[in-house]
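Progress report, Aim 2. The chain analyzed during this reporting quarter is listed below.
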Amino acid sequence: MQDILLVIDMQNDFIDGALGTKEAVAIVPKVKKKIEEFQGTVLYTRDTHGENYMETQEGKNLPVPHCIRGTKGWEIREELDVLRKTEPIDKVTFGSSELGSLLLKLDQEEKVSSITFVGLCTDICVISNVMIAKAFLPEVPIIVDASCCAGVSVESHENALKAMQVCQVKVI
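Predicted structure tokens for the chain:
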């Protein structure tokens, strides 16, 4: 049996860059401690956009260029990146079907006993990937560590946590 920790989009642009918040800055040490103490497999995702971001649907709805491949903002926060043991899963949208497929593969190799989520943003990419994990591995307990997540706003963070609880996700 293996436990998995998913570190969602802990990138400079979401922490103190183009879309940063004080709440995102505040969780960095907590996420670092969670990674360091986690007994299991740790995987990272990385929001990844191209130079054509403003022409995409996301760019039209959120006209703030961010996480452009190769920029400082796209990089995972240095103190978290140095703890990484595998390549991040680059994702071009909120949720990653590649992540779902990887979780299924990992479960087939060695049963997954739990999946814990931390990262940014609770109300966009965290909730999207939680739902993908739930769809691919519906019998695996999914946990979200609220103290290691931050949303676009405090209110939308809380709303996302409540929505995930309704979908049988354990919020700690």
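The chain has a mean pLDDT of 97. The longest strand covers residues 112-120. These observations will guide the mutagenesis work planned for the next reporting period.
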